Amino acid sequence: MAEAEKEHTRSRWVLWSALAVIAIYGIFVFLLWRTGVLTFDQQTRDSQAFAAVLGLLGGFFASSLTFVGVVLKHSLDERNAQIAERNARLAEETERRLTLESQRNDQLKREEAPEP
């Protein structure tokens, strides 16, 4: 049950990240439109159109890289958390095993000790 809940949380986190990046890109396009960069008429030069397209592509590229970076960081954090949990379990298991070995060694020493 816990694994399914983690997967659901992970999926929800990625979805919200994607929506945030899309919103940021939408705001970027809106700002380009409001400043007049995306407004074309008869007097628009090719350089202005090129600047508008370059701005849109640059914004899309930056938003995409941001999303990929966020997803990668989240994945690495999840993996590091899993490794830390595994290491903690192994440490507990090792401690239990050493305790059992110590008790067994003490018992064997008592059994081997000559009685007066």
SSE arrangement:
Layout: H1 2-34, H2 46-112
Q: Structural class of the secondary elements?
A: mainly alpha
> Main β-sheet: number of strands, strand sense, barrel status?
none
Gross morphology is rod-shaped
Please tally the β strands and state the result: 0
Whole-Å distance between the termini? 59 Å
How much helicity do the residues have?
over 70%
Uncertain runs: none
Number of helices: 2
Average of the residue pLDDT scores: 81
Beta-strand residue fraction = under 5%
Radius of gyration: 30 Å
H/E element string?
HH
Q: Can you tell me about this structure?
A:
With 116 residues, the protein is mainly alpha-helical. The chain has a domain of 79 residues. 86% of the residues lie in helices and 0% in strands. The chain contains two helices and no strands. Helix 1 packs antiparallel against helix 2. The longest helix has 67 residues. The radius of gyration is 30 Å and the shape is rod-shaped. The two termini are 59 Å apart. 1% of the residues are buried. The model has no long low-confidence stretch (mean pLDDT 81).
